[in-house]
UniProtKB/TrEMBL annotation, chain A:
Gene: fdh3B
InterPro entries: 4Fe4S_Fe-S-bd, 4Fe4S_Fe_S_CS, 7Fe_ferredoxin, ET_IronSulfur_Cluster-Binding
NCBIfam families given in the database record: FDH3_beta
Cofactor(s) essential for the protein: [4Fe-4S] cluster
Protein name stated in the entry: Formate dehydrogenase FDH3 subunit beta
Keywords assigned: 4Fe-4S, Electron transport, Iron, Iron-sulfur, Metal-binding, Transport
PANTHER family linked: PROTEIN NRFC, PROTEIN NRFC HOMOLOG
Coiled coil: none
Entry superkingdom: Bacteria
Organism listed in the record: Azospirillum isscasi
Chain ranges of the 4Fe-4S ferredoxin-type domain: 4-34, 78-107
UniProtKB/TrEMBL annotation, chain B:
Subcellular location: Cell membrane
Cleavable signal peptide: 1-23
InterPro entries cross-referenced by the UniProt entry: Cyt_b561_bac/Ni-Hgenase (IPR011577), Di-haem_cyt_TM (IPR016174), FDH_cytochrome_b556_subunit (IPR051817), Formate_DH_gsu (IPR006471)
Record flagged with keyword Transcription: no
Cofactor(s) needed: heme
Entry's transmembrane regions: 77-100, 124-148, 168-189, 228-248, 260-282
GO molecular function, one term: formate dehydrogenase (NAD+) activity
Species in which this protein is naturally found: Azospirillum isscasi
Keyword Acyltransferase recorded: no
Start and end residues of each Cytochrome b561 bacterial/Ni-hydrogenase domain: 121-296
Membrane topology of the entry: Multi-pass membrane protein
Protein name as catalogued: Formate dehydrogenase subunit gamma
Length: 211, 333
């Protein structure tokens, strides 16, 4: 089974924000929620780089570990998903996530976080694939249709790639060899560590994969 | 001097939270040492790595915040150990103590003569704070330990209902808690200023281990009660401030600040729970006649002589004791 990953090539990203727009449009994301965003470092000075960032679907997801209601799970493809029926909007996953992926709707009364929303790798949620219920809570389920996440499909410079981690790593390796200079893939060591399964966040496991 | 005294508990709280806070500031590379030049940046920046986003939401500019790892370690390991030990430890210790010492009896039994100890306002302030605290303690423990202890018992959907209700109760009961806390402070601060007699009380631990049943003399509040008062004022204050800031994400602090606030909130809450377990023990089964003070508000004269002789003598002078027929009535109810 493929291990699905995102890879953003910072040498290629031109900060066009097409991935952000594609994501928002595809899933009907409400105003104020950003499942994906493009961050520019050293803006306007030499060495400027842009990186498209969303949930990286970690091997040992911190969000899943700290969740008090245990609402996260990992699919066989390695995609980290959560159940909005179980989520209580406590914000713990947001404290733990290294990438700032969890988003909360501007909610209700004081204390005001609604149920968490994040990138699903276009894989929906725990509901049956491609049902209206799944769409309303999590957006479309492209993986169930045999398609990859739209953000990566939309990327005009092929900076953002999504798919089988090993294939992505091969493509990226080839690029760095051609370019003649190496560049670590953003977030990969944080999200995936050296091993494909477990261990990325220190000695203690207990993420969604383990429970 | 008073300024110094006020600072002391704050320092105490900070000291307790220091290891976890230190971990927040002192970032060290994890087991995954960076393998390339560009990645090194992620770990070398003392703060998190922040850039610019064109989305009108500046806080999304944070690319990577490695501090989440330390916070995860605290939430998953240290908080559970600290809260678990501070919850079960005092209960076990008091159970053993109860078996050895039993209920502390009133010397010479009840006299049947009432002395007014806490009026309606005192008791209202106490119980408003107490009930809010207990509800917040229980709901906080549900959110902290529920995944480990309750999900296997009641299942995910039921636990979500419970946890969500807990979250809202935890948030809303903070309001009566703070009101009660302010009332307690205003009503009792005058009688809780430390004095010389407190040293004697502390030296003998209030005579609790003495077989003879001798009690060091005390005014309205003895040194132990004063300790509870100041711990509640400062601990409760720390809980309220950290809690309100956590309720309003990004209003004052960013995500790093919220992680530290959560650590402070969790550690102080665990300490307060331990303290209140002791407080409940001595106010109920631990001491005969003690519950009356906060129950009916009227204590037995012999209890007052035993535990608060100086206060009792003041009451005799000012007419609070043994003179008011109305009080007798009140005690009989």
């Amino acid at each position: 089974m493929a291990r699905m990953k995102f890879l953003c090539d910072a040498e290629r990203c031109i900060e066009c924000n097409a991935c952000v727009t594609a994501c928002k449009n595809e899933h009907d994301i409400p105003w104020g929620i950003n499942r994906r965003r493009v961050i520019t470092l050293k803006d306007g000075v030499p060495g400027e780089r842009s990186i498209s960032m969303a949930c990286m679907h970690c091997n040992d997801p911190p969000c899943a570990a700290v969740c008090p209601v245990d609402c996260f799970y990992q699919t066989a493809d390695g995609v980290v998903l959560h159940s909005k029926d179980l989520c209580i909007g406590c914000g713990y996953c947001f404290y733990a996530c290294p990438f700032g992926a969890p988003q909360y709707p501007q909610a209700t009364n004081f204390g005001g976080r609604g149920k968490m929303d994040k990138c699903t790798f276009c894989t929906g949620g725990p509901e049956a694939d491609n049902t209206m219920e799944e769409y309303q809570k999590y957006g479309t389920n492209r993986l169930a249709e045999g398609k990859l996440p739209l953000c990566a499909e939309m990327c005009s410079t092929r900076a953002l790639m999504a798919g089988d981690g090993e294939v992505l790593a091969d493509i990226y390796k080839e690029r760095t060899v051609r370019r003649g200079y190496g560049s670590g893939a953003w977030g990969w060591s944080t999200a995936y560590g050296s091993d494909d399964r477990g261990g990325a966040f220190g000695p203690r496991g207990g993420g969604a994969g383990a429970s | 001097m008073t300024k110094l005294l006020r600072l002391l508990p704050v320092l105490f709280v900070l000291l307790l939270a220091a290891p976890a806070v230190q971990a927040q500031f002192d970032q060290t590379p994890g087991p995954n040492a960076p393998t390339s030049k560009d990645e090194v940046q992620l770990y070398q920046t003392p703060d998190k790595l922040t850039g610019r986003v064109s989305i009108p939401d500046g806080k999304l500019g944070v690319l990577v915040q490695p501090e989440g790892r330390e916070w995860r370690e605290f939430r998953m390991v240290w908080l559970k150990i600290i809260a678990g030990v501070l919850f079960l430890g005092p209960i076990a210790a008091l159970a053993v103590f109860y078996l050895i010492r039993g209920t502390i009896r009133i010397h010479g039994g009840r006299s049947g003569r009432p002395v007014l100890r806490f009026g309606g306002m005192d008791r209202f302030a106490h119980w408003t704070t107490a009930v809010s605290f207990l509800i917040m303690a229980v709901t906080g423990l549900v959110v902290t330990f529920g995944r480990t202890l309750l999900i296997p018992l009641i299942g995910h959907p039921n636990f979500t209902t419970l946890a969500e209700a807990s979250k809202y109760m935890h948030n809303f009961f903070s309001v009566p808690f703070v009101i009660g806390l302010l009332m307690i402070f205003v009503l009792w601060v005058r009688d809780n200023i430390p004095e010389r007699a407190d040293l004697v009380w502390l030296k003998t631990m209030g005579g609790i281990f003495g077989k003879s049943g001798e009690h060091p003399e005390a005014g309205r509040f003895n040194a132990g009660q004063k300790g509870v008062f100041w711990a509640v004022v400062f601990g409760g204050g720390a809980l309220a401030v950290s809690g309100f800031l956590l309720m309003m994400p990004f209003a004052v602090t960013g995500i790093g600040g919220m992680q530290i606030l959560h650590v402070v909130h969790g550690v102080v809450a665990a300490l307060m729970i331990a303290l209140i377990i002791g407080h409940i023990y001595i106010g109920t089964i631990g001491m005969e006649g003690a519950f009356d003070a906060m129950g009916s508000g009227v204590v037995d004269e012999n209890w007052a002589k035993d535990h608060h002789r100086r206060w009792y003598e003041e009451q005799l002078r000012t007419g609070g004791a043994n003179q008011d027929e109305r009080l007798r009535h009140h005690a009989a109810e």
